[in-house]
Amino acid sequence: MRASYRPVPVTLGVVGAWAGLLAGVTAALAGHLPARAWWPIHKVAAVALVLAWLHGVLAGGDTYALRWIYVGTGLIVAVVALSRYAARTAGEPVEGLHR
Known about the structure:
Largest sheet: none
Shape: flat
Helix content: over 70%
Mean pLDDT: 82
Structural class: mainly alpha
Number of strands: 0
Order of helices and strands: HHHH
Distance between the termini: 38 Å
Radius of gyration: 16 Å
Low-confidence stretches: none
Number of helices: 4
């Protein structure tokens, strides 16, 4: 929040970048960490995506010209994510990770 240029969007971008780095590191460690520990940490990737998207929408000097592209890509990602979670079956191993 110390940036002189749009402090909130810049901070969202910085936090999003760190969250993306954490998600990338956990992806690299997927086979080395127990699934119980890996899965919740790796979910940070969704947070990184949202923060990066918000940063792009709020901080860009050309954001007004690209607003429909941001909105369109955001909607596409949301629809794909919702369809993925709606299609989840009872036999998926993800459910076993929460026990």
